[in-house]
Amino acid sequence: MKFISIDMDKCVGCMNCEYACSFIQNEDFARKDSNIRVNYYPETVTNITMTCMQCTEAWCLEVCPANAISRDEETGVVKIDQDKCAGCKMCMLACPFGNIHFNSTKLVSQKCDLCGGDPNCVKFCISGALQFEESEDLFESKRSSLDGKLQQLITDGKIKVKGGE
User: Fold this and answer.
1) Counting Cβ atoms within 10 Å, is residue 163 exposed (0-12), middle (13-18) or buried (19+)?
2) How far apart, in whole angstroms, are the C-alpha atoms of residue 124 and residue 136?
3) Cβ atoms of 144 and 34 closer than 8 Å
4) pLDDT confidence of residue 143
5) DSSP labels, 111-135
6) Tag placement on the chain: N or C end, fewer CB within 10 Å?
7) DSSP H or E stretch at residue 159
């Protein structure tokens, strides 16, 4: 299965991913209609980008009373059938990450469906912060990235290692 990975260190906050998603999914350029979100925190000059994680145990799927949410067996994508969605917002309440939103024009819940396997947010990311990767590659790159950051903190003396100087 492939996932969208997000390198927070590379995100420049341009929000192209939001605009690309909104245009492809809803034919507008309204960030509120995007299935990916870039949250900017000026006090720490930080961008945190979030989108659906296509959870293995998808609580949104479990709570949907209209059976509008299903998993594509081939791709693993958890998707919402907007024709079946009753607009009850139970999926929004169930999502532990807040990655489902309500489209107030269509009166249905919406979430990332990976654009059918070719995510536009990734294509339009100017900084390379978004990648579409196989799950095993994603986990390996995350491990390597964390390892490098920890090594740098040790080198800078910000973390002491037991038995170290």
Assistant:
1) exposed
2) 24
3) no
4) 66
5) ---GGGGS-HHHHT-TTS-EEEEEH
6) C
7) none
What is the DSSP code string of 10-70? Answer: T-----HHHHHHHHHHHSS--GGG-SEEEEEETTTTEEEEEE----SS-HHHHH-TT--EE
Residues 6+ apart with CB under 8 A from 52: 35, 78, 97, 99, 100, 111, 112
Dist CA 156 CA 139 (whole Å): 26
Scan for tokens 């590379």, then name that residue: 10
138-148 confidence digits (pLDDT tens): 566 666 666 77
List the chain residues with pLDDT less than 50.
none
CA–CA gap between residue 31 and residue 52 (Å, rounded): 16
Q: Evaluate whether 70 touches 61 at the Cβ level (below 8 Å).
A: yes
pLDDT one-digit tens code per residue, 61-83: 999 999 999 999 998 999 999 99
2-134 maps to which CATH number? 3.30.70.20
Question: Residues for the chain: how many in total?
Answer: 165
